[in-house]
Amino acid sequence: PRCAALREPSSEACALGALYVVEGSALGGALIATALAPVVGEARRFFLGGPSGGEVWPSLLARVETLAPGEQQARAIDAAVETFRIFEEWMFDWRAAPSCLDRLAVISGSEN
Predict the structure, then answer these.
(1) What is the Cα–Cα distance from 32 to 38, expressed in whole angstroms?
(2) Percent of the chain predicted with pLDDT > 90
(3) How far is CA 15 from CA 1, 18, 41, 42, 89, in A?
(4) 73 against 39, higher pLDDT
(5) How far is CA 8 from each of CA 4, 15, 18, 53, rounded to the nearest angstrom?
(6) How far apart are CA 57 and CA 20, in angstroms?
(7) Other C-beta atoms lying within 10 Å of the C-beta of residue 17
(8) Are residues 101 and 42 in contact, defined by beta-carbon separation less than 8 angstroms?
(9) Tens digit of each residue's pLDDT (9 = 90 or more) over 9-25
């Protein structure tokens, strides 16, 4: 499902803050996938995300480093925090997907 709460960034600094979260999460997912490979095999593909494979990360960090101290950095940080908040609400809104709890109960063996 699409994350409707995400808005178009209002500045380059805001875009960089949001990208920092998205690309960092993708890179973290790839690390998780590598660790899970011996345990779950191809099921780890869920964590691999897009095709960039971390290639964007170094250039993104270099661009973030060029943000001017003060307002630009504050905007990037605020956008990163807001992106985390939006993703958290989107992923963990159990009311929007009540079947997730049922699936969790089946997986854990605690269904009633």
Answers:
(1) 11
(2) 35
(3) 22, 5, 35, 33, 20
(4) 73
(5) 11, 8, 10, 24
(6) 8
(7) 26
(8) no
(9) 999 999 999 999 989 98
The two three-digit tokens of residue 46, written as one number: 């869920």
- Give CA 32 to chain center in angstroms: 13
What letter does residue 8 receive in the DSSP assignment?
A: -
How far, rounded to the nearest angstrom, does the alpha carbon of residue 80 sit from its chain's CA centroid?
Answer: 10
Contact, 77 vs 13, CB < 8 A?
no
The 10s digit of each residue's pLDDT in 61-75 is: 999 999 999 999 999
In angstroms, the Cα distances linking 34 to 27, 28, 46, 84 are: 11, 10, 11, 23
- CA-to-CA distance for 79 and 20, rounded, in angstroms? 9
**Per-domain residue ranges of the chain:** 12-108
For 14-68, what is the HEC assignment?
A: HHHHHHHHHHHHHHHHHHHHHHHHHHHHHHHHHHHCCCCCCCHHHHHHHHHHCCC
